[in-house]
Amino acid sequence: MASTKTCFVTVGATASFHDLVKGVLSPSFLKALQSHSYTDLIVQYGVDGKQTFDLAVKAAGSSGIQISGFELEKAGLGKYMRLAKGSGKEAQEGVVISHAGSGSILDALRQQIPIIVVPNATLLDNHQVELAEALAEQEYVVHGRLENLAKALEDAERLRERQKEWPPANSGVHRQAKAVGLRGILDEEMGFLD
Amino acid sequence: MAFLILTLLTTLLALLTTAAIYRFNVILTPTRNKPLRHGRRNPNEPTHLLVVLGSGGHTAEMLAMLKRSVTAPNAAEKLNWKDYSHRTYVINEGDDISKERVVEFEELAVGTAEDLMAGKVKKATDIGPGKYEIVTVPRAREIHQSLYTSPMSSIACLQACRDILMKHTTDTRDGHAGEAGKVDFPDLILCNGPATATVLVFASVLLRFFDVRGCSTRGKMRTIYVESWARVKSLSLSGKLLCRVVDRFLVQWPQLAKEAVGRVEYRGVLV
What we know:
Chain A is an alpha/beta fold. Helix content of chain A is 40%, strand content 16%.
């Protein structure tokens, strides 16, 4: 049996993101998925996204991709991330497409899965775009644009080879310090002398 | 006659204002006194960490940051969770997801904590995993709520925050310490930006202003604010309000450290 390759899409737990749901179910994107041998598409469509999802799935008709979706997952998205990560022979490593929320991004980076980050421009000040750009510049993520998700998919394939580690080793700042990172700060504020 | 009274009142007001400004200056300097500690995990000196969580990303970032610290492979970076014998988590009313995440995190963190060992034998004074509690406050501001109506909802939140901060207190002895073995005001308040955190920090400042139950004398409630990892080019509103108020203000992008004012520090990415 051919190995599976999963693309997991998440719009986050707090706000809706209809444009992304529509974008990943558009015929052009589904075709792009097929060309990169994806077999499954799982969409977490979020609060009041069900209608958008159902309509788009119907419009998409039949593609070679197994499509499924859900609204929210209280227990966290770990298991879907693991599906996207794949487990070797039967399941190839896929991709995560996420809104540019820090929690979702951190989850995917930790698991070392290529991630396409799409800012949700309807949120306050379009604040998500800053993080997406900064991380794409440092080549941790692919900054996906709604108008051309197929291209983002291609970029993600290339990113797969150069996947960077997370968290980054502390960049020389206070390397000689006895205590670094958050622990260093907490220790200093507590006044622990040892 | 009336003029005299008016003059006196104005002078009084001016004096009070000056005194208040002076007191705030004293309270809000990061170099204010820290308590004298006799070793870590000392059963006579319980430590109290208060963590503020908010909706979605705030909770995710805070717990990711703490998780990274307690599981760090590098010994200099690893946070020993037993250093904090009492933990209080503040969440918004109705935020069940955050509650679950806290329970998950605590299970993990307690599992990573190391015992005090003399050789391979556990020391008799080793304290256990300590206790934690999850408390709720009414929201200071709903998502999409107008900033003009926020002050009203913040008052209810402020009172709830004051109650939480006053939940555990002791008396002062030796001029700088609390009673032995009793949990006291939080030693540290750790937050990363939800409106609730801003209100809580202001509540703690008010308590310290009046030195309620000796919290200022004992050097309690040091505040640490970590700006969200999502803020790359500019501070959030909470950040702008708190950057001159908290004891430590951390950002996670170097470009932000150059832009912003106040006591902004960049110590690398923390999440």
